Amino acid sequence: MMNYLKMAYRNLGRHRRRSVLSALALGLGTALLMFIAAFFEGEMRGSMETTLRLNTGHLQVTNASYDPDKLSVAWEYLIENPSQSAAKIEALEQVKAATPRLVTSGIVSVRDESAGVQIMGIDPASPANDPYRTLVAGEFLAAEDRSGILIGLPLAESLGLQVGDSLQLLVNTSDGIVDEQPFTIRGIFTTGTSAYDKGIVFLPLAKAQVFSGAMERASYIFVMLNDREQADAVAAAIQGQNYRIRTWTEMNQLLVLVNDFSNAYLTVINLIVLGVTATVIVNTLLMSVFERTREIGILSAIGMKGSQIITLFLVEATLLGTAGITFGSLVGWAVSAYLAKVGVFFGDLGISGEMLLEDRIYPILTLESAINLIVTAFIITVLASLYPARMASRMEPVEALHSAQ
Fold first, then answer.
1. How far apart are CA 191 and CA 348, in angstroms?
2. With contact defined as beta carbons under 8 Å apart, do 38 and 365 qualify?
């Protein structure tokens, strides 16, 4: 084997520039695939975590007749005494936080400008509301505040609002009429998700209940678990008549489906990029076969078997693959590690609702993804070299020597 390595190294060194460019092409392909795998992983994980933290939680407990798409605050759709029910749920060992929330639609109006928003009444003391505590100005809401409102940074910028400014808030009440009240901006928050921040405002739960006419009722109980995989077990443990309990998989079917399909997309992309780089390797070895026809004829004439010629070309492909994939792996890891810290900024992509994406995506390169890519790239490189290796092994010594003259 050592002789094969020496001969393969010498042969690759004859055309050093071509060998380096071939290894570089394979390396760049490997690096690109590593970054794509890290980007997909970061995008899907980030989207899932953001959607769960901001929008759905791990569980939602609602009235059996509640329709989340209508945002109605009519009493027959709401949960009565939600704080008492939330406290019982939060007492469960698997539950991290459980808090009532009241959600309705409304309009923010200031001067001659207005914007449609979702109004959410929250318990300011609950840790489930920590994602909204990142403030760019002002302070967070207090439970007893009856005139304060918390708005997102994109909404504040679009309406030219600052902390201390007043705005008019219109709300659809439980009686089916529209009420309007002035509020003072206590704070401006950011979750890093512009599509979400620009369409929602927060009020203390007690104020939202009185303002909307819901009184001692809430739209749902928002539940965060210590481990989201326990959602089904916790849902089974929650008892109550007229309750409807939905897990995060039920509430995020589109996101779960996209996550499942992302693996298929990634496999197709991998095969395309590796196919292109494998073509470069095949082309390099084919050129080597045509240039070394006389040498192959001499080796065959002195007794070198076809299997030994195949082995020689496979060793050359192995050396090229090892150099290129090692280089590409280091570059792919370094780029992914750097971008995992600073993120890739996309801004507001306009995606909201069932699937939230932060403005900045942080790639995550897992050890499993890296190993799979390295092994796949190496196998494809060796398989791609079989064709030129078999071509060289089938050359007849006399014909090879004659054609080379």
1. 12
2. yes
